[in-house]
Amino acid sequence: MTQCRLIKTVSVTMGGQRIRRLVPVIVLGCVLIGLTGCIFQEVKEQQQKISALCTVEGKVRTDKSDNYPLVVLLLRRPDGISDIKVKWQLADHYVLEGPGRWFFRASPGNYALVAFEDRNANLIYEPDEPALDTLPNQLIACGAGMRIENPELVIPVTGRVAVDGPVDIAGLQVRTIQQQLDISLGAVTAVGEVTTLDDPRFSEEHASQGLWHPFDFLFEARPGIYFLEPYNKKKTPVLFVHGIGGTPINFRYLIEHLDRERFQPWVYYYPSGAHLNGVADHLDQTVKRLQLMHGFKRLLLVAHSMGGLVSRGFLLRNQTETQRADIPLFVSISTPWGGVPFAATGVKHAPTVVWVWYDMAPRSAYLRQLFYRDPDRITEHRSLPPETTHHLLFGFQRDSLSLGESDDQVVSVASQLYPGAQQDAVRLYGFDATHEGILEKDVVSRLLNQLLVEAIR
User: Does 75 lie in the same domain as 46?
Assistant: First the structure.
């Protein structure tokens, strides 16, 4: 047990690059010395906490064809109170551009649903907006680990919810860690919170927590999209998405050299040990919320390492929306499009598998669905949205002691240049740089600014 604890300590306290390099060592080290405890026991406990959350999902539409956003509200009845007339608490909300599916992950409890047509597209319920109130007829008792498929919510054009005045949905988000047991995961999401790259939540310790202790990360670091300056409608937002074990501070050099007269930097922060489908869904939903709050029409996307896999998943989701923001530029940097072999080793040998390893393994279900319309047969390529231009950057600076195929000391060049990714990219750029070092190259910074400016012309 002592050996495994030592490996864990080294992986947490070293810098971001070292965390990534030690992942395969941690996996194989624990397996080879025959231990089933140590960090993997902690990973298992974290996964059990997340699995204990209940899931409520369903569809929503209106009874007539109107082209307005729809908002589904999840209301929670305080524990120990059975009176139906008690004041219910808003646990979370889900935003859709039109008819479609919604879902919530929440702690066990008693819930109800309300849905409304947001005709002003401002995340504020106005008394004259069509709404559906399921109280008191459709109460939901959601137990630990349960998945409840709710009947389709149909908002009647004449339906209303009795309120005293406008209700600001965005303003009702839960903001404190102490309320974590009474909320849905979406309620701890940062949606445009203004901060700096020196925010303690962006520390390497929290980044490591996001990989090994994702449940704790949700409430201590808080996932979401953070603004690095107050929103300015005259500037185009640039969203930076980090990789596995990463943090927004990985982009410090690029952000410090960003043209701040034209662009405003946003950073997406998430627990990198989670399943990537869930992360891509979360990013998509958070962007939708920001669109309703600020009404921006264009967003530029920059991703590093595994963040590219998250971003492609987001782009594929976003292209199905009718009122989505225009995303004319996607820049991926050192992304393992073809997967990482050590992830497959972890899946095969680790006592407890970190969820993201399933998705990072070569030929995983997640990777196949990123590039194929038929992921089981893998015959029909799934392209990025036609209005999105993808520029693919890769690194090739090997360690002098490295053996085997070419790499950037973390990801192989072959994985970075996976044919499916090349097929959608308008141009490839190679740099003599390491996996992390590429983010601090002046030539990369200058190229990025050039691509950003070209994208808004």
Answer: no
Clarify whether residues 230 and 324 are in a common domain: yes
The answer to whether residues 373 and 412 belong to one domain is yes
Averaged pLDDT score across all residues of the chain: 84
Whether 410 maps to a domain, the answer reads yes
CA distances from 93 to 32, 75, 105, 133, 284 (A): 46, 9, 11, 14, 14
Does any domain span residue 241? yes
Close Cβ partners of 189 (under 8 Å, ≥ 6 residues apart): 173, 222, 223, 224, 282, 286
Range of the domain at 16: 2-51
State the pLDDT at residue 172.
55
- DSSP lists the bridge partners of residue 141 as 110
CA distances from 102 to 36, 132, 133 (A): 38, 15, 16
**Same domain (yes/no): 27, 104:** no
- Cβ atoms of 59 and 100 closer than 8 Å: yes
- Predicted structure pTM score: 0.78
